[in-house]
Amino acid sequence: MKQSRRTFLKSTVAVGAASLAGPALIGTAHAADDTIKIANITDVSGGLDIYGQPQVACLELAVDEVNANGGVLGKQVELIKYDPQSNIQLYTQYATEAATREQVSAVFGGVTSASREAIRPLLRRYNTLYFYPTLYEGGVCDRNFFCNGSTPAQTIEVLMPFVMEKFSGKKVYVIAADYNYGWISAKWVKHYTEANGGEVLDTEYFPLDVTDFGATIKNIQAAKPDILFTLLVGGNHMSFFRQWASAGLAGKIPMASSDFGVGNEHIVLTPEESNGMVAAYAYMQELETTANTAFLERLRAKFGDDTPYVNELAVSAYNAFYHWVGGVERAGTTDRLAVIKALEDGTPFNGPGGRSVIDPRTHHAILDVHIGEVENNAFRVLESHSQRPPSDTAQFCDLLSNPNDNQQYVIGTKA
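Below the sequence we write its predicted structure tokens.
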């Protein structure tokens, strides 16, 4: 299920590129009284498009499925799509437009933590529900916000003891993207490494435009870790794995990650460059379950040869929409506070990756998590963990007791 990038973007990028001078509405119709409007703000062009394209595809599939079954509250859902082109300024522009001019019932989107934090305060101010369908570093506590992706307590907490046992090692070296995802996630890697009797030898951070990792490769060789944990992000950082293999180091030091593969790294890189990477996610396309098989068949039926490879980010967007639908149906209205209260009831959704339930205290999803190893451009699922709670965020956040809380907590700090 590899995506034809050119074909997928044919109907989106042309409109999105013209949007610098006006609204970037992609494939929408005028709203009518019998429709409910929602918005998606996700990169389908620019440097982060590889993350955004599968998310949009799965959200479109979910909307089509619900509309084909009668819609929500007897009304069709109108999906307004914005392409911020990996530009934070456009994220804020489109979030404001979606909330004010379009008056959507909910916004879905955001890829990086930077894009999330650019629009989350705006959507809270405009009383517009926000669903963030992306794995991230955890800690956001905001009653207007719902996270459907995994956090470190759901993935890294099970991944670290697994790889330390699998590779019989306790010395870990961390390389991470130089922004809040990398900074905070690296803290959690250190926390869970030490909790399992290990040691982080060093951590290096890299801006997203870095492509030369020669000095870092020498540092890693000198440190002689048992495990290399990567929190690199984006196309430029893929250069590390190519340079690592070119230096003859592929397979010499085991690697683990909580984000490798959601940018299709394991497909773009050669098997020599990616085989053996161990990762943990709330969804892997290779899951052999009845629910996942049926989901992939529906996705192929919709997109044909343009069907994207599906990862956790994409399925989180699919799950997020169905959680919103469930909240609206239970509330009997699209009223924001009523939907929030309905979502806090914790009704589950059984999605392609397993059961997903909104935790009422944190507004994060309780998820099934799967550990897999890259083998010839695909993940081989090794084991699964049922219903992992967002316990990292729950250490700090209790929206039932403090519904007006509005911040992102970082490990080691508590207001």
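The chain is about 40% helix and 20% strand.
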